[in-house]
Amino acid sequence: MQRGSVVMAILAAVLAAGPAGAQNLIAQEGWQGFALRDADNRFDRCILYNRTVEALTASPYGMLGVTRDAHGRIGLLIFYDPRTLTRGETSVRLKFDQHAPVPVSGTALSDFHVDVASLEPSAIAALRDAKAVEATVQGHTARFEVSDVAGVLDKLETCVKIYGPKS
User: Fold this and answer.
1) Which end of the chain is more exposed for a tag (fewer CB within 10 A), N or C?
2) Domain 3-163 class in CATH
3) Per-residue model confidence as pLDDT tens digits over 72-114
4) Coil, strand or helix at 33
5) Are 98 and 132 in contact (CB under 8 A)?
6) How confident is the model at residue 21 (pLDDT cuts 50, 70, 90)?
7) Helices (H), 18-84
């Protein structure tokens, strides 16, 4: 099963189940999320959203998710309005505060959200201190005010240590 299919299946399950359905709930100062597992119940990654899981279940649009996988890769899930995107590989332009825009590769997993699986170290450094994240995909821009991203990245690292594969 492709990673995009796994993420969509998990997102659908969480949305259908409501807040009580989110297992391994994690939180960090205004961010909430969980450890994700694939269809074979193997650890996939940890994610924190810039809203509560309850708000996520009410509407999965206009939000930002920060991810970390077992290999330490930091990524983003960016959610737009419905019917905004065309599925498939796509280019994403990220802007953190007043830093110059950074082009990255992504995959539009649905008509409303894109997965950036891995950020370069310079982008992660800018994200860590960011107060705003702007993402442009297929001509559509979403802007998110964010706080305590450094804490989010630390919480994701802890999440991977707790729920990820054991060496």
Assistant:
1) C
2) mainly beta
3) 999 999 999 999 999 999 999 999 999 999 999 999 999 999 9
4) strand
5) no
6) very low
7) 53-58
